[in-house]
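Suppose you are handed a protein chain with no further information: no name, no annotation, nothing but its sequence. What can you learn? This example shows the usual starting point.
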Amino acid sequence: MSDEMKHAVKDSVFSFFFSQPENMHSLYQALHPEDTTSTPEDCKLVTLEHVLINGLTNDLGFTVRNRLIMLTEAQAKFSRNITLRFLLYLAASYKEYLDDHKLDLHASKAITIPRPELYMIYAGAPRRLPQSVYLSELFADGPGGVELEVKILHFTGSGNVVDQYIEFCAICDEQRKLYGYTRKAMEEILRICKERNILMPFLLTREKEVRDIMVTLFDQDYLLEIHDYNLKKDYLAKGERRGEKRGEKRGEKRGEKRGEKRAILNSLQSLMFTTGWSVDQALAALKIPESDWPMYRERLGKSQAVVSVTPRRVSKPRK
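A reasonable first move is to predict its three-dimensional structure. Written in structure tokens, the prediction is:
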């Protein structure tokens, strides 16, 4: 795999797609239809270092003439905290701009910097959202000396590049629900996008890179899913310890144990249904002691030889 490809698979489809000059320009035209003389050559990518380390890169910056356009994607959740993230990204981007242009902040002559425009592309479930969110909304004691506005971009039905990307996200969610984290899901996502002319011709010309990125994204979601189950297990264990102490005092320890087993059984059933795992795969994912496996196999009415409970087969859990 080339160095370029190694870098690409660390990014999301979002950053990979919008980092292409022609797609940056399409986005800029969607935001500024009044500028009819701009070209893809006017769009320059800004390297956003990981000011906040949170896994995959869903943030992008680029300049067009005297404008600094900064974007971020919220795929499932909307949060007003995005304004604070943008403040940190903006400061880092301006520092990079000063270094690149060798500008002296201590000089008596005023320097000029690109005017910022900040946007969040909301690609989650349809809901009523404000047109903009402001940094001052996070201040504890009312307005302060700094303000920052982030505009919210959502699906409009115009068919522009923003709409197409949001449609791509919706198709991904639908196919993962149908087929899980499988090659079938990826094939269906690409097939549907081609049929509906979504993100074309990009998906045709860069299909291999997009496939590699999607594999990485599926793995990331898979690991997060397992992480969530392990967190639930930890909370269950803490509750069990507290319950045992209360139970010992009231002579109800046996009842607490029965409650713990029921909770684990519910978690196992949910995990098996969601991922298509066998009983043993689910037991391993929840880190259930192997000495307890026969009991849970019997209670779930399964045997060790069971391969899966649904056609949505995914990778074995990491240990």
